[in-house]
C-alpha cells in the first residue's frame, strides 16, 4: 500500500518555515513494518541541510520567535496541542504504518503528545528565577533564559511522545529547535511541522531535518551553532553525542534505555500485579526504554508467578499493527534480527512460554514471537543487555538484600517497579535502587508527563518531563545589584 493524499509532502524537509527537498535531492524509503513494503519516501538530509536549519533557528531566536512574550509562546503551543487532537486519528494511523505499533497504542501516543504540548504551554509563563538574600545594600536575582538553539535527536520507538517532551519543554523555555527524527519513524515529526505552521508559529522556531543518523544526526550533534543537545537512543550513539557536545562545550541530555527490574515480593496481590508484570514489557513490542524486561520474584510465589505469566504469554499474538493485536511487528528487519539473535543466545535457558504470530501477518513483516525465559542467571547476557523486543526474563530471589543486589546489578538504571504491601520495605527499596524512577505497586513505563524522567549509569543523565525538563532547557543568570542602604 502506498500512502497517498497526505496534507504535507513527506519527501521535503521543514526548514525556516518552508518545505524543501534535501540538498542532494535524495530520498529514503519508508517501510511499513507490518508488511515490509515501502509506503512513501522521506528526504535524505545532508550536513548542508543541517547548516540551513541551524541558521534558520538562529534567525528565529534573534527575530520574531525570540521576541515573543512567554504567554504568547504558551498560546501558540496550546493551539498546536488542539491541532494535534483534531488530527489525532490521522496522526495515529501514520505512526501505526510507520513504526508498526498497534493502532490503539498510537492513539495513546497522540494523546500524550497533545498533553506534553498542553503541559508545557501552561508552564511557559510560569518559569521564573528567584531573589537571593545577600549582603546589605544589594539585591540579587536569577533569570531563567533560553539557551538559544537546541538540537533534538530522537529514536523510532515513541516518536510522538519523545518529540512532545523534548520539543515541548524547549519551545516553552523560548528556544528554537532543530529536530532529527529517526530514519525509521519520521512521518509524525513532519506531520507536526505542518501543524506548527497551521498554528502560526514564527518561521524557524521548529525545524525538521530527516535523514540517516551518520549523516544528519552526526552533523547536528557536532554543529557549533547548537547551545544544547538532547538525545534518546542507544548507549553507543549517546557516547558519540556527548563527545561531540564536549568539543563544542555545550550541555547534553542523554536518555539511553535500560534493563529495568520489576520486583515481586511474596506478600503481593498477584491478581493486581500480573497484567502489569507482562504489559510493562510488551507495550510497543518491548521496544521501550523503560520496559520492565527483568522480573525478579521472591521464592514463595516464584512458581505461581512464572505459571501465570506463561499463561498470559500463551494467549499473546503479534500481528498487523492496524488490527490491534497484543503487539505489532518490530520496527525494522534489523531490529527483528537483533532480537532473534538474543533469543538464540538464550539457547541454554528454559523458555517458560511463547506467544504466536497471527495467521493474517504478511510474510514480509518484522514479527517476533513474545518469549518468556525462566530461572535466568542475573549475569546472563539476556538479564544484562537491553534487548528491545518482546522478551522477558524471570529471576528468583530470596530476600530484600538479594533483590536489591540483583536489581542494581546491571550497568543501567532507568526505572524500577516494586510490588509489596509492606510499607517500610517499599520505602527502603525505593531509596536503595539506583534508578531515576521507582513505581510502587504500579509501573508507569516511564509515563506521566508531569514526572521527571531519566537515568543513572549507562541509562544516561539529565531529566526530561515535568518542570525539571524546563530547567534543563534554560541557562541561569545571576544579577547582583548594589544600590546601597
Ligand atoms: P540509535 O541510537 O542508532 O538511534 C537513535 C537516533 O540516533 C536515531 O535518530 C538515529 O538516526 C540517530 N543516530 C544514529 N547514529 C548517529 C550518529 N552517529 N550521530 C548522531 N545521531 C545518530 O539506535 P538504533 O540503532 O535505532 O537502535 C539500536 C538499539 O538502541 C536498540 O536495540 C535499543 O537497545 C537502543 N535504543 C534505545 C532507545 C531508547 O529509548 N532509549 C531508542 C532506540 C534504540
Ligand atoms: Mg518505518
Account of the protein in words:
By secondary structure, this protein is α/β, with parallel strands linked by helices. The chain has 2 domains: 3-256 and 461-477, Aldehyde Dehydrogenase, Chain A, domain 1; 261-448, Aldehyde Dehydrogenase, Chain A, domain 2. The chain is 40% helix and 21% strand. Strands 15-17-18-13-12-19-20 form a 7-stranded mixed sheet, sandwiched between helices. It has a 6-stranded mixed sheet with strand order 9-8-7-10-11-21, with helices on both faces. A 3-stranded antiparallel sheet has the order 5-6-22. Strand 7, helix 6 (159-172) and strand 8 (176-180) form a beta-alpha-beta unit. Helix 1 (47-62) runs parallel beside helix 8 (213-221). The chain is globular, with a radius of gyration of 23 Å. 1,4-dihydronicotinamide adenine dinucleotide (NAI) is lined by residues 153-155, 157, 180, 182-183, 213-214, 217-218, 221, 232-234, 237, 240-241, 255-257, 289, 338, 386, 388. 1,4-dihydronicotinamide adenine dinucleotide is lined by residues 153-155, 157, 180, 182-183, 213-214, 217-218, 221, 232-234, 237, 240-241, 255-257, 289, 338, 386, 388.
Uncertain ranges: none
| CATH class descriptor name of the largest domain | Alpha Beta
Taken as a percent bin, the fraction of beta residues is 15-25%
Please state the CA-atom Rg, rounded to the nearest Å. Answer: 23 Å
Query: Roughly what is the average pLDDT, rounded to an integer?
Result: 97
- Termini separation comes to 76 Å
Under the CATH scheme, which architecture of the largest domain would be assigned? Answer: 3-Layer(aba) Sandwich
Count of discrete structural domains: 2
DSSP, total strands: 22
The CATH fourth-level homologous superfamily of the largest domain = Aldehyde Dehydrogenase, Chain A, domain 1
**Broad structural category:** alpha/beta
Name every ligand kind in the structure: 1,4-dihydronicotinamide adenine dinucleotide, magnesium ion
Shape: globular
